[in-house]
Structures are given as structure tokens and as C-alpha cells.
Amino acid sequence: MLDDYSLPEHSASLPLQNKLALITGASGGIGRATSLALARKGCSIAVHYHSSKDKAEALVSELSKINGITAMAFQADLSNYDNVRKLHAEVIRHMGHPDILFNNSGTTNSVIGPNGNIEDVSIEEFESTWKTNTGSSYLTSLNGLYPGTGGVIGPHYASSKSAMHGMLHWIAMRYAKDGVTCNAVAPALIIETSMMANPPDHLRDRIPVGRFGRPHEIASVVEMLVTNSYMTNKVCTDPRDFFGDFFAAVFH
Ligand SMILES: NC(=O)c1ccc[n+]([C@@H]2O[C@H](COP(=O)([O-])OP(=O)(O)OC[C@H]3O[C@@H](n4cnc5c(N)ncnc54)[C@H](OP(=O)(O)O)[C@@H]3O)[C@@H](O)[C@H]2O)c1
């Protein structure tokens, strides 16, 4: 809760020392960069991963070198709701209740692009994408108490991400009075990630700054969101808002 923070006078910045952040998909590019950024401000990190055990363990050992914080890895396939519940319970059991929840994990599944054929995405794939990207975020938010359009991937990914916008707006409005801030980041296109390891060159031309983004540039936006004491119910998108698509929710 916001009241738990003692804000220095004239500062809108919430201290992260002795806080705990659960970061889903911390084994990926943006999750890793955000874990390191928050840990450097004194925040302990529950590092979630799905299949990239080596990356998660390497991150935990890197985080453990930072003074005054703790980090542990937790495995879960978030397309399975029982696993989402188990992840939450395990984090609480080993590290305590998270103060910050970054619903960052996500999957594209098939990439058919704007010119693909709709029948190339089966209903099974559509539903499984939605469960991983949206349903699991709903459940983690329910458990703790927490978005874009995804247009360059396909209809399954796009709908799974845009649904997060509606969820964000409701949660932010409902829980603001309880001291919970809830905001989203909808970045694009971020390289040094598994899902955007090699984006085609022509996509660069659609990005206002004329280059692809890097994970630490998104981590710094998330850091701003989790340390700002006032802003809520906002989606930080890329400037032209045509790719945006995932969300970070923060509750204090
Ligand atoms: N890169 C971009 O340009 C871009 C643009 C817009 C939005 N985003 C969003 O940014 C977020 C972070 O992605 P990223 O860019 O850092 O890509 P990434 O490097 O591919 O990371 C994706 C993360 O999601 C996890 N994940 C995938 N499927 C999962 C499942 N079934 N259960 C649990 N976790 C699962 C992966 O875990 P494992 O590796 O351990 O399997 C990995 O940690 C995602 O929500 C993505 O949709 C990215």
C-alpha cells in the first residue's frame, strides 16, 4: 500500500529497498533487464521462468551479487492455471508476499504477420495464447491483487494483448483507493529478446526513432512506473501505438 512508503519530502519516487518484485518471464530479454534495474535499487526479485532454466539460474547468480537483495528462481508454465496458482504460493512460501508484480511473460506462438491467413491460427492455438498472455495475468493479479495490440504477430496474440488493456483499466480504477497503482507498458520492437531475435528490416522503418529498442530501455520505463507514487491507469506505448502489446502491473 502506498501508505507503507515514507516518501522523502518533495519526492514522488517510492523507494524500492526491502521490497519484493515478482517478475514473470524474467528469463527473457525485458524481464532480465527489469530484474537487474529494480535489484540495483534494492528490490529483491522472484525470478520466474518457463523453459529457460539456465538463463534463470544465471540471472539469479548475477542478482545475488547485488548487496542487500535476495533472488530465487521459480519455474511455471503459465498456460496452465494450476501452475499460476502454484507459482504464487511458492513465491510467498519462500520469499513472502510480493510488493510489485510485473506480468511480463508472453508468447507469440505462430507468427503469421499482417498478411497471414486467419485459418493459419487454430482455435486451440488462439486459446492457448490467450491463456498464457492474458488469463495467467488475470490470475496472478487476482492472487496478488493488475496490455497493446500485437498486430505484427497475428490475431491470437493481438487479442490476447489488447484484452489486457480492459483488464488494466478496471483494476486500476477499482484498486486505486486501496493504494494500488496499475500501469502498462506496450513496447515495440525490442531486440535481444527471444521473440524478436531477428525482426525483418522493413519493420525498422515504421519505428519513429528509426531503430529497434533494447530491453534496458523498457526496464527504465518499468522502473519509473514502479517508483512513481501517483500515476495509475496508463498504458505507455511506443510513440505511434501500432505495435504495442503487453503489460506490467504494479501494486504497492
Ligand atoms: N520484444 C518485443 O519487441 C516485444 C514487443 C511488444 C511486447 N513484448 C512483450 O514483452 C514481454 C517480454 O517479452 P520479451 O520481449 O522479453 O521476449 P522473450 O525474450 O521471448 O521473453 C519471453 C518470456 O516469456 C516466458 N514465457 C513464454 N511462454 C511462457 C509460458 N507458457 N509460461 C510461462 N512463461 C512463458 C519466457 O520464458 P522461458 O524463456 O523461460 O520459456 C520468457 O521469459 C512479453 O509479454 C511480450 O509479449 C515484447
From TrEMBL:
Any idea which GO molecular function terms this record carries?
oxidoreductase activity, acting on the CH-OH group of donors, NAD or NADP as acceptor
Cross-referenced InterPro entries: NAD(P)-bd_dom_sf, SDR_fam
Q: Which UniProt keywords apply?
A: Oxidoreductase
Q: Which PANTHER family match?
A: 3-OXOACYL-[ACYL-CARRIER-PROTEIN] REDUCTASE, SHORT-CHAIN DEHYDROGENASES/REDUCTASES FAMILY MEMBER
Q: Which family does it belong to?
A: Belongs to the short-chain dehydrogenases/reductases (SDR) family.
**Quick one: signal sequence residues?**
none
Put simply, this protein is called NAD(P)-binding protein
